[in-house]
């Protein structure tokens, strides 16, 4: 069991909260792009409200604890660990609710190198609690725009968690998948579930386009987000994302293990 105080200390020591690796310059660039409705940062969300750069700074100050001063334009960005802890509590509450009714869940990540273990442990626990962890559209091709142009990827699952791989990557033994912000994989997975006649998810858990893409389509979605990913927090503010947990989403994978234990304990899913 990890206490709230111990986890707070870990968040700060690991750089998951407090001063984080994301720079203020990176965050402000993302806010400007989001205000311009750039799909690279909207992550599949189609905002209902008008969001200017100053609106986004104010939102992120409220949800994450970054500086609300538009004149603060350089240095490291900061996440308030208390907001991270409150987000994890709410996140655990949604897992507990779906576990209580033995519901259907879809997990997906655009950060497989960092967050696969976190989500996989949650998927294992929900499965053990009687939930159906979905794995639709295995092997389906998805064309994703990257900095190198449009590239074809395939949907794959590891321990119940969806991700995308470059073609042939599994056969070549190439890692756990690729980093992506695209909402196209979750759309393909949901289409695959509908086409196969299997259950649709009652809850989607993940990050980036997996959360925003699902929320935009009306599915309950919860996830993790860094301070340069305003889309999840906009989705939360507009009611299409149930929970967005502010934290650095790109630290070393082992650093998320205490968060796993904390969430499972709070959701009463510890074994």
Alpha-beta classification: alpha/beta
**Structural domains: how many:** 1
Strand content: 15-25%
Oligomer: single chain
What is the CATH class designation?
Answer: Alpha Beta
| Percentage of residues in helical conformation | 40-55%
Largest sheet: 8 strands, mixed
InterPro entries: Phosphatase_SCO2771
Protein name: Phosphatase
Notes on the protein architecture:
With about 270 residues, this protein is of the alpha/beta class. It has one domain: Glucose-6-phosphate isomerase like protein, domain 1 (Rossmann fold, 3-Layer(aba) Sandwich). Helices cover about 45% and strands about 20% of the residues. It has eleven helices and ten strands. The strands form two sheets. Strands 3, 4, 5, 6, 7, 8, 9 and 10 form an eight-stranded mixed β-sheet that branches. A two-stranded antiparallel sheet has the order 1-2. β5 (about 140-145) and β6 (about 150-160) form a beta hairpin. α6 (about 110-130) packs parallel to α11.
Short overview:
Pfam families: Phosphatase. The chain has helices spanning 4-14, 24-35, 39-42, 53-64, 81-100, 112-128, 169-172, 184-196, 208-216, 230-238, 257-266, and strands at 18-23, 76-79, 104-108, 132-133, 141-146, 149-158, 161-165, 203-207, 221-225, 243-246.
């Amino acid at each position: 069991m990890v206490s709230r105080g111990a986890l707070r200390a870990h968040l700060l020591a690991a750089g998951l909260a407090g001063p984080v690796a994301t720079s203020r310059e990176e965050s402000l660039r993302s806010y400007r792009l989001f205000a311009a409705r750039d799909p690279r940062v909207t992550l599949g969300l189609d905002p209902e409200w008008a969001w200017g750069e100053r609106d986004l700074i104010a939102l992120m100050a409220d949800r994450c604890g970054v500086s609300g001063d538009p004149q603060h334009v350089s240095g490291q960005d900061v996440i308030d660990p208390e907001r991270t802890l409150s987000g994890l509590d709410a996140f655990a509450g949604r897992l507990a609710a779906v576990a209580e009714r033995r519901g259907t869940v879809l997990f997906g990540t655009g950060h497989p190198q960092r967050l696969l273990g976190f989500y996989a442990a949650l998927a294992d626990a929900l499965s053990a609690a009687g939930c159906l962890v979905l794995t639709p559209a295995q092997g389906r091709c998805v064309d994703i725009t990257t900095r190198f142009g449009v590239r074809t990827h395939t949907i794959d699952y590891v321990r119940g968690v969806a991700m995308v791989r470059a073609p042939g990557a599994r056969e070549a033994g190439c890692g756990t998948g690729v980093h992506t912000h695209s909402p196209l994989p979750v759309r393909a997975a949901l289409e695959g579930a509908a086409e196969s006649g299997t259950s649709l998810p009652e809850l989607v858990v993940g990050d980036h386009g997996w959360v925003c893409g699902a929320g935009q389509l009306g599915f309950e979605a919860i996830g993790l987000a860094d301070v340069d990913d305003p889309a999840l927090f906009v989705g939360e503010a507009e009611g299409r994302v149930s929970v967005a947990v502010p934290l650095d989403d790109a630290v070393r994978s082992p650093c998320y293990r205490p968060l796993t234990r904390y969430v499972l304990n709070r959701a009463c899913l510890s074994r």
